[in-house]
Design brief:
The chain has helices at residues 18-32, 39-45, 49-52, 84-92, 102-116, 130-141, 157-164, 182-188, 211-221, 240-243, 246-250, 279-290, 296-307, 311-332, 354-363, 387-402; strands spanning 71-72, 123-126, 147-151, 168-172, 195-199, 227-230, 255-260, 273-276, 345-349, 366-367, 379-383. It is α/β, with parallel strands linked by helices. It has 3 domains: 11-69, no CATH class; 86-307, Aspartate Aminotransferase, domain 2; 310-403, Alpha-Beta Complex (Aspartate Aminotransferase, domain 1). The strands form 3 sheets. The chain has a 7-stranded mixed sheet with strand order 2-8-7-6-5-3-4, with helices on both faces. Helix 7 (157-164) links the parallel strand 3 (147-151) and strand 4 (168-172). Helix 6 crosses helix 12. The two termini are 37 Å apart.
C-alpha cells in the first residue's frame, strides 16, 4: 500500500513526450547514483563497441539539479539522498537479492541493539515502518473490542488500522500551540484502553512534547496498555539525546519505540524500518512484520548508514535550514503556523480547503499534500526540499496566498 502522501491529488502537466520522459528518468537515476557526469555516451559504452571508444566528460563537482518536473514537497522524503556508503553497499550486494536476507537481518538487529543499548531480541524489522504501525494497530484492535487513545491531527498509521478493524479510536484535541495534549490523552485512558499512540515529533504539526512529560505519561499509560511512541522524525530534531525514549524499553516499561530509515537516512523508496520493545512483544510483532522477509538491499543500506557516523550530523543542519526557511515563508505571509517545528516540514493555515490549495500550487509547479486532517481542513504541511524547490515554493506561496 502506498504512503498516502505520495499519491497526488492532481496530475502534473503532460508537457514531455514519452522519449523526453524516458531521458529525464534516466538522467535522474544516473544523478542519484553519482554517475550523471558520464552521460549517455558512457551509458552506452557498456553495450556497444562504438561506446567503448568514447571518452566520458569529466565529472562536475556538484551535478546540476533536474528542475524539469514539479517541486516535490508533499511526502516528507529526504531531498538530500542516502549515505554514499549506503549506495555503495547496495551496489556491492545487488547480486545477493536472489537470496533471503535472514542472516543480514540478524546482523542489523545486533547493530541496532548495540546503538540502543538493548538486546537483539528486542529489535524487530520490517519493510518500512508502515507494516509495524499496521501490525500493532491490528493487535490492539483486539478483533474490534479494543480502544486506542491518541491525538487528533497525528499520523494515521495506527489509528486508521484500529478503526479499520472496528475498534474504538479516541482522539483528543491539540493544545493551543498545536502540540499533542498528553494530559488530555491521560484523562481518556480507562480499563477499556488497549493502547496509546504518540508521534514525536508529530506529523503533521512537526512539534514535540516535553520529554519529561512524555516519559511520565508513557510510564503511567503503559501500566494499563502498551504505549507506542513513533520516532520516525526524531533524528531531525535539535536535541535527539534529550528526547529519545528507548530508555523506557530498557527499564522494562510496556513501551514500543518505532523508527524508520525513510526520513533522515534518505531511504523512503527502499523501505526499511524497525521497532524496539520487550523481547516477547518484539517476537510477536516481528513474526508479522517480517512476513516472507525484509528486503535485502534495504538491510545492507541500513547497516552502512548506521556505520556512517558522519551522515546524520551532516544531514541534520540541512533539514533544520530547510524547515526554518519554510517557517519564515509562512510567517512573512502572516499565516497561523504550528510553533517550533522539529521534523522535516511545517504546518500552517492557508486560508482555503487543502485540496484547493494543492491544485493552485500544482499549477505553479509545486506538489504539496492534497488532503486534510480532521479539524484542520484549511491547514497544509509543506516539506523540506532542495534549494530550487524551496525557491519555487516561495514564489508560488506569494502568488497563491496574496492573490
Amino acid at each position: 500500500m502506498r504512503h498516502p502522501d505520495t499519491i497526488p491529488e492532481t496530475n502534473p502537466p503532460a508537457t514531455a513526450t514519452p522519449i523526453e520522459k524516458i531521458e529525464t528518468s534516466r538522467r535522474s537515476l544516473l544523478r542519484g547514483l553519482g554517475l550523471a557526469s558520464v552521460g549517455a555516451a558512457a551509458l552506452a559504452a557498456g553495450c556497444s563497441k562504438v561506446g567503448t571508444e568514447a571518452s566520458a566528460a569529466p565529472a562536475p563537482a556538484t551535478p546540476a539539479p533536474d528542475t524539469s518536473g514539479p517541486a516535490i514537497l508533499g511526502a516528507n522524503e529526504s531531498p538530500f539522498g542516502p549515505s554514499k556508503k549506503a549506495v555503495e553497499a547496495m551496489i556491492a550486494k545487488a547480486a545477493l537479492t536472489a537470496r533471503y536476507a535472514d542472516g543480514e537481518g540478524e546482523e542489523l538487529k545486533k547493530q541496532i541493539a548495540t546503538i540502543e543499548g538493548v538486546s537483539p531480541d528486542q529489535i524487530f524489522l520490517s519493510n518500512g515502518s508502515g507494516p509495524i504501525l499496521a501490525a500493532f494497530g491490528e493487535m490492539v484492535a483486539a478483533k474490534g473490542k479494543g480502544q486506542l487513545v491518541t491525538s487528533i491531527a497525528t499520523y494515521e498509521g495506527v489509528p486508521r488500522t484500529v478503526a479499520g478493524y472496528g475498534a474504538e479510536v479516541i482522539m483528543t484535541p491539540l493544545t493551543a500551540d498545536l502540540s499533542v495534549d498528553l494530559d488530555a490523552m491521560a484523562a481518556k485512558i480507562s480499563k477499556k484502553t488497549t493502547a496509546t499512540y504518540i508521534c514525536n515529533p508529530n506529523n503533521p504539526t512537526g512539534n514535540m512534547v516535553d520529554p519529561v512529560k512524555l516519559k511520565a505519561f508513557a510510564i503511567e499509560a503503559s501500566k494499563t496498555a502498551p504505549c507506542f511512541i513513533d520516532e520516525a522524525y526524531l533524528h531531525l530534531c535539535d536535541d535527539y539525546d534529550g528526547n529519545v525514549m528507548t530508555s523506557l524499553v530498557r527499564e522494562g516499561h510496556n513501551v514500543i519505540v518505532c523508527r524508520t530509515f525513510s526520513k533522515i537516512y534518505g531511504m523512503a523508496g527502499q523501505r526499511l524500518g524497525y521497532g524496539i520493545a520487550s523481547a516477547e512483544l518484539a517476537g510477536k510483532l516481528g513474526q508479522v512484520t517480517r512476513g516472507g522477509g525484509v528486503n535485502h538491499a534495504g538491510i545492507v543500506a541500513a547497516m552502512a548508514s548506521l556505520a556512517d557516523t558522519d551522515f546524520v550530523p551532516t544531514m541534520r543542519p540541512k533539514f533544520k535550514a530547510g524547515r526554518e526557511r519554510l517557517f519564515a515563508m509562512a510567517k512573512a505571509l502572516n499565516r497561523p503556523i504550528a510553533a517550533n517545528p522539529q521534523a522535516s516540514f511545517v504546518f500552517f493555515d492557508v486560508g482555503m480547503p487543502n485540496k484547493v490549495f494543492a491544485e493552485k500550487m500544482m499549477a505553479e509547479g509545486v506538489r504539496v499534500v492534497g488532503r486534510s486532517w480532521k479539524g484542520y481542513d484549511n491547514w497544509t504541511r509543506i516539506c523540506v526540499g532542495e534549494d530550487w524547490e524551496l525557491d519555487r515554493c516561495e514564489a508560488a506561496l506569494k502568488k497563491v496566498l496574496t492573490a
